Amino acid sequence: MNGNLKLAIQKKGRLSDKSLELLKSCGFDIENYSERLFISANNFKLDVLFLRDDDIPEYVQDGVADIGIVGENVLIERGSKAEIIKKLSFGKCKLMIGVPEEEDISDIKALNNKKIATSHPRLLNNYLKNNSINSKVIEISGSVEIAPSLGVADYICDIVSTGNTLKFNKLKKSFTVFESEAVLIKSRTFNPAKQDLLDQFKARIDSVLLAKNSKYLMMNVERKALEEIQRIIPSLKSPTVVPLAEENLVAVHAVIPKEKFWLIVGELKSIGATGIILLPIENMIL
Ligand code: ATP
Ligand code: MG
Fold first, then answer.
1. How big is the CA angle at 83 (ends 81 and 89), to the nearest 5 degrees?
2. Residues 84, 188 within the same domain
3. Backbone angles phi, psi at 246, to 5 degrees
4. Enclosing domain of residue 275
5. Ligand 1 contacts CB of residue 53 (under 6 A)
6. Which is the closest atom of ligand 1 to the Cα of 13?
7. Are 144 and 276 found together in one domain?
8. 86 and 116: one domain?
9. Cβ atoms within 10 Å of 100's Cβ, excluding its own
10. Does 256 lie in the same domain as 154?
11. What are 129-155's pLDDT values in tens digits?
12. Rounded to two decimals, what is the model's pTM?
């Protein structure tokens, strides 16, 4: 017991790179881990444990790790009692019902009395129960999408991104059963002596996530257009206005949600904004 905050992340898979990237943007100095089971950060009391994603919920629940990063789907599928403390906005995916291409299903009642193959029985059963549907759930550990052509099931329920795997198996997307993203989880038996470390850890993550979703916008406008600009820009705070050598012009700087840029750029141009620049922000503390 070294008193370090123990964080479990996926060893090798879809969440591994993004989890490490997040930790690095938070300023934790973690060496490339290659095949090691765990690594300590050089500049923070943090140990990173590398595990199969299926094991993370239990390890955190049992307190082997204090916190973990895992897909929300895995957390629920494993029936874990670990607590979600933050959604991390990566690893987004959808668990969907896939049906044969030629079937037109618009009413969820069409799932009644059908066989649905899945590797996510708990999530599927929750969904069916919430919608009062009675289907037979067939649990398969992998390659679920071939079940209908083998005659094992009528439909499938699987994680879908592009839908190409479905198409290849003459299936198509239907209802969405669950929307997932990576989440930061905490043990319910979390050691209070580590609360301060966890607060610092969380503050860094908050700052990085906030910065990732924001951009720094700069432009020049005529001074008389300032009021218009303030109406257009969905700024977190009031924009910074800097006088320029040319007296009737000002430079306006503002932090905006990144998805807003393409929505407002036309309006900005129409009121005569020039030299519009959008910059990434590394960290943001409000
Ligand atoms: P492990 O070897 O650790 O058990 P795995 O093969 O079970 O890995 P991955 O395929 O690496 O798991 O997926 C990890 C998580 O990534 C999923 O549980 C899900 O939350 C998320 N995810 C994001 N996009 C996708 C996708 N297109 N397909 C599957 N999972 C995805
Ligand atoms: Mg797994």
1. 125
2. yes
3. -80, 120
4. 214-280
5. yes
6. 11
7. no
8. no
9. 16
10. no
11. 999 999 999 999 989 999 999 999 999
12. 0.89
